[in-house]
Backbone:
């Protein structure tokens, strides 16, 4: 399946339109949301496509100049940069770019939906998403489990309970063959979405939306998840933001949570336990999704742009950490954050909160020389769109279960050589 062109010569992707207009993909979504450009979806394809003729005419009216370096139509980097390092062929960072199986993650985030990126991580090839639709019995079990939990439970608490339930309900969980593991993996994200309370009224309880479309699987995962994060109905720009977040957080190389997941897999733990190990480490307040929880919490201390400097100074005076800045694995600002913050600015959230986020980023950059990381962008998304406390953790875990499973498969199939298990003791 091509990731670089639409099915007809006059149909182009968001990324290609950005190249023609000399802007970034987030700006194209802003044009669409303002009615300046129109987009459409083709049968069985949830991505947004634009008319090349309309975009070229819009570019002429604006006097736009194409990007000096056009967006690459091929997401694959030169072989020297895209060669997998020792230890994993799933994901890694090279030349300050995050790669999934050698493909640029930021390019994937604006052109390929999460379900297809999950297939790329699991199989090495971009293919139509095959996330499972939950059967009625499993759906009821998840709902009963969630109903028994305290109302104060954080989203991550609910996902952990569902991971345990999925393992207990799968009599073949110790079948560690690739087909069995991937079958389990394709249930994880839909089950985790089902675990979160429904905040919008646009879904029925059978996994279909009000128009009768299946919302459990494939490209509709972002649509269904959005209704569990905020009651506000999503437009294209909001779904573009959430879809990009799911893709960009699906994998990040051999970070702490992934090392924990691989250690679990190296001891032949079942895939549900592997994911539990990963999410337990990712929930730490010093890294991963847990940091997004801290970011959301301290951003909520700020009620106006004028209060930004005072709140930051007060936090430093108390010795509190200003979470969400700096990413030691890159020599440049975290490219995931840069893209997500652009998409966030175009997503029409609360305008005052968006201005607060912009002011915070500017203040920290000016005074401390630090750029925001992906965890800040995730916490800022929750803040700007009024999501429940801890929603960022849920987004990260739902996304990252694709990467954790891909690494688990490497461990399960490990032989002496570059993919040998990290430990067998």
Residues:
């Amino acid at each position: 399946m091509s990731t670089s062109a639409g099915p007809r010569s006059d149909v182009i992707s968001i990324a290609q339109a950005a190249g023609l207009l000399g802007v970034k993909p987030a700006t194209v979504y802003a044009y669409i949301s303002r009615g300046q450009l129109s987009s459409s979806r083709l049968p069985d394809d949830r991505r947004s496509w634009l008319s090349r003729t309309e975009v070229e005419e819009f570019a002429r009216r604006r006097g736009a100049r194409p990007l000096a370096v056009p967006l690459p139509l091929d997401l694959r980097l030169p072989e020297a940069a895209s060669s997998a390092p020792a230890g994993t062929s799933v994901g890694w960072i090279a030349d300050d770019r995050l790669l999934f199986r050698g493909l640029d993650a930021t390019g994937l985030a604006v052109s390929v939906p999460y379900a297809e990126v999950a297939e790329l991580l699991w199989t090495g090839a971009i293919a139509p998403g095959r996330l499972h639709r939950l059967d009625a019995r499993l759906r009821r079990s998840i709902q009963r489990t969630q109903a028994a939990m305290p109302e104060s439970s954080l989203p991550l608490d609910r996902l952990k309970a569902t991971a345990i339930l999925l393992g207990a309900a799968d009599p073949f969980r110790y079948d560690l063959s690739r087909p069995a593991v991937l079958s389990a993996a394709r249930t994880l994200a839909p089950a985790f979405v089902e675990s979160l309370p429904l905040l919008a009224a646009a879904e029925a309880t059978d996994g279909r939306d009000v128009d009768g479309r299946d919302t459990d699987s494939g490209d509709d995962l972002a649509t269904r998840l959005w209704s569990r994060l905020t009651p506000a109905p999503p437009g294209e720009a909001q779904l573009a933001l959430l879809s990009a977040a799911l893709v960009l957080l699906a994998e990040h190389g051999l970070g702490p949570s992934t090392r924990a997941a691989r250690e679990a897999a190296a001891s032949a733990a079942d895939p549900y336990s592997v994911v539990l190990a990963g999410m337990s480490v990712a929930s730490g307040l010093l890294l991963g999704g847990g940091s997004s929880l801290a970011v959301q919490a301290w951003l909520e201390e700020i009620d106006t742009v004028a209060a930004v400097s005072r709140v930051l100074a007060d936090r430093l005076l108390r010795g509190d950490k200003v979470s969400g800045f700096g990413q030691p694995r890159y020599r440049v600002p975290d490219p995931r954050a840069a893209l997500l913050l652009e998409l966030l600015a175009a997503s029409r959230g609360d305008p005052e909160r968006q201005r607060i986020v912009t002011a915070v980023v500017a203040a920290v950059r000016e005074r401390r020389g630090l750029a925001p990381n992906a965890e800040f962008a995730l916490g800022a998304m929750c803040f700007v769109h009024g999501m429940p406390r801890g929603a960022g953790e849920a987004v990260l875990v739902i996304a990252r279960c694709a990467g954790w499973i891909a690494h688990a498969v490497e461990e399960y199939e490990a032989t002496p050589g570059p993919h040998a298990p990290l430990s067998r003791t």
Notes: Residues 391-412 form the longest helix (22 residues).
